[in-house]
Amino acid sequence: MDVWKRKTRRIFKICVISKGKIKLKFFSILNCIRKIHIWVLGTMTLEKYRDDIYTCNRSRCGFCRELCPVYSQLKYEAYSSRGKMQIARGLLEGIIEPDDALMECLSLCTLCGYCKARCALQNVEIFKELRESLVKKGFENKYHKKAIKSIQENKSPFGPQKEGQKSSWAQGLEFDQNSNVLFFVGCSYPRSFPQVLKNIHEFLAKVDIKLAYLGDEEDCCGLMMDLTGYRDEFELYKKNYKERLLQLGIDTIMTPCPGCYKILKSSYFNPEDDSTKIKVVHFIEFVANLIAKKKISFKKKIDMTITWHDPCDLGRHMGIFEEPRTILKSIPGIKLVEMKNNRYQARCCGSGGGMLTSNADISIDVAIQRLEEAEETGAEALVTMCPTCESIFEKAIRYTDSAMKLYDLSELLLNTCNGDTRKNTGSAKDFF
Questions:
Q1: Domain spans of the chain, in order of start
Q2: At what angle do helices 409-417 and 322-329 cross, to 10 degrees?
Q3: pTM for the whole structure
Q4: What is the CATH number of domain 296-417?
Q5: What is the pLDDT of residues 77-94, one digit of tens each?
Q6: How far apart are CA 83 and CA 96, in angstroms?
């Protein structure tokens, strides 16, 4: 109520008193109506998080700032979780007005979830809500806007795709279109690391498993829409794509991409939803399951000291921490050494949440910081499984002339298999 009283007083401030008469300026009235409209839209989307926002503003503990990837580079409060919570309160109370500068500030966030891991509040959801409220008012990040338009028009955030471009990695490879398990490759791996997909296909062949694959008919999962504030557009996109996937008659989706895995499992086919008919698994989960069921053994030795980077979407957001470590420890000769910050405390690579698209220079700086942490372990190689992480780490290694080697987990798996596996005696479904 106090907020509305303040707003009412602001309305009367547009009145100009001259010679005892009150003259209302038409332009000022329109401007005031516009501001009230913007303020109401903003508070409506944030209102459900009011308690969390005020809890943060009252406690101001600051634990969220310690390893925040952007705050660690810029050292400015507004880029920390605590600072963005103050911005959220300012929008709720009408103290701060949305504009392009505010959207630029909110875009400087990888949505890595470190703040959420250090806090009991719904930080990431609030920041996504902040972006959404600004997008709805017409304040958009031009780079995000371009990517979203491309997803809507080209089913990919990377612009128009030539016929056969997305599925070119699969030329000459066999798939089973009657399989009840779909191989969902995502947009980034085919574009940046097609060899990873070939590695996975060859690995699956060694355990006598063939999956279905949509090829060029596979569309973007739409994750970037959800992350960058285009929630309404995402929900419509998801609704249409989900219907298509359900019509395929599959019961499982396997993907190597952490981003696809997160949005497919948490939004499209959430296991907590009773109506969910499709199970979503990450390739790492699949391999860890093979090991647990003793369906595969690794005998070829790989003498290498490595460190594992936890992708934010796979780790903090989806809780897949021990599975990749189990796999690595199962490979003869591999010595796994942990970085100082790992699992829930792992540093972000710097390129998620639309950051690499809009602020590549800061993304590189964040990646270099993580690379230095990997080097401190004395490891020969940095291993992970995320096309976004691998892309930024490649750049960081090149820019710093680092001797660190970079591997996707699939490469190590393929090398250690060497045909020495236990053959599948059932259907693909038996392994999920």
A1: 26-140, 155-291+422-431, 296-417
A2: 30
A3: 0.87
A4: 3.40.50.1860
A5: 999 999 999 999 999 998
A6: 13
